Amino acid sequence: MYRFSNTVIGFLNLFTLLASIPIIGAGLWMARSSTTCANFLQTPLLVIGFVVLVISLAGFIGACFHVACALWLYLVVMLLLIGTLMGLTLFGFAVTSRGGGVEVPGRAYREYRLEDYSPWLRNRINDPRYWNTIRSCILGSRTCAKLASWTPLDYIQRDMTPIQEKQIYECM
């Protein structure tokens, strides 16, 4: 049984090791872009890619070459990683729990109001530092160039989400 479990752990870690390479590649590819949106995602992608690479390398070495300390390191780091992901998930639910949106008659989407969300999230969005990052992302997305050719009738006939309406407001 010992050899079988080590073989399974070795193959799973080889798979995650190979999967981390495209994640790191995506982070490096985003470094070519100068937009704020790409820069916002670049660092987390690189960190996640390298963490997955190191963890899976430790698990692979520990399982395939019978290195007990590498397997213990792998176990402890995976436990911390699972705990962190569970904490982030619970935090996300807590911050957005009341923001389910309200039905809008005649529209295919729901209307979301900032007041429905937690005070932490409201303060974060209302903070000019964070909003300026979001705003520069919207302005750099070529949305404004597309809207320049719209007529007043287009604004009425198009079925836009609140996010799209906010983009229009930022373009003007």
Shape: elongated
N-to-C SSE string, H for helix and E for strand:
HHHEEHHHHH
Kindly state the mean pLDDT as a whole number?
Answer: 82
N-to-C span: 66 Å
Question: Radius of gyration in whole Å, from Cα?
Answer: 23 Å
Helix content: over 70%
Strand order of the largest sheet: 1-2
Low-confidence stretches: none
Strand % is under 5%
How many β-strands, per DSSP? 2
Name the features.
172 residues, mainly alpha, two-stranded antiparallel ribbon, 8 helices, 2% strand
Task: Give an overview in words.
It is a single chain. By secondary structure, the protein is mainly alpha-helical. The chain is built from 8 helices and 2 strands. It has helices spanning 2-30, 36-64, 68-96, 119-126, 128-139, 143-147, 152-157, 162-171, and strands at residues 102-103, 110-111. A two-stranded antiparallel sheet has the order 1-2. The longest helix is centred in the N-terminal third of the chain and has 29 residues, at 2-30. 7% of the residues are buried. The model has no long low-confidence stretch (mean pLDDT 82).
